[in-house]
Amino acid sequence: MKLITRNTDYAIRALCCIAEQKEDIVSVDHIVQCLEIPRSFLRKILQILNKERMLNSCKGRGGGFALALPPEKISLIDLMRIFQGPIKLNECKFKKDDCPYVSDCLLKKKIDEIEKEVIAKLKAITIESIIKRR
Q1: Phi, psi of 48 (to 5 degrees)
Q2: CA-CA distances (angstroms) from residue 67 to 2, 9, 100, 106, 132?
Q3: pLDDT tens digits along 41-69
């Protein structure tokens, strides 16, 4: 089981690269050089982040991307949901209606507790906290 996919990883690294720059607008060329990933792949990720309102885009000469939110407001859990969907550690084999034990399943209750802890910890990891640790 992979916790973070390649798209999520690249999104995190791109946002960190943009957040660390002194300029308001960071060019795609600069991000490509910083991250050493293919331009076409990076553009798709940046477009998704722009659509999800994590980034603002500026077109034309001198264009590029800027953070739409402060780095402390962009959490790892938000990025995981954008690129990977909802975080679910506990998907029962049976649908709730079909399982006679759903209301008193001890395993489900324990895994639900773990899931809540994991989500809280992922929510606490922000772009700001990542770039501060560098």
Answers
A1: -65, -45
A2: 27, 17, 48, 43, 17
A3: 999 999 999 999 999 999 888 889 999 99
Q: What are the residues facing 126 on neighbouring strands?
A: 75
How confident is the prediction for the chain on average, in pLDDT? 89
| Distance of alpha carbon 70 from alpha carbon 85, whole angstroms | 23
Note the Cα 33 to chain centre separation in Å. 21
pTM of the model: 0.86
Amino acid 133: pLDDT: 79
Asked if 15 contacts 49 with a C-beta cutoff of 8 angstroms, the reply is yes
Q: Tell me: pLDDT of 121 over 60.
A: yes
Neighbour count for residue 31 (Cβ, 10 Å) = 24
User: In the chain, where are the structural domains located?
Assistant: 6-87+127-132
Structure tokens that stand for 132 in this block: 């501060």
CA separation for the pair 73, 53 (Å, rounded): 12
Count of residues making up the chain: 134
Could you tell me which CATH class the domain 6-87+127-132 is placed in? mainly alpha
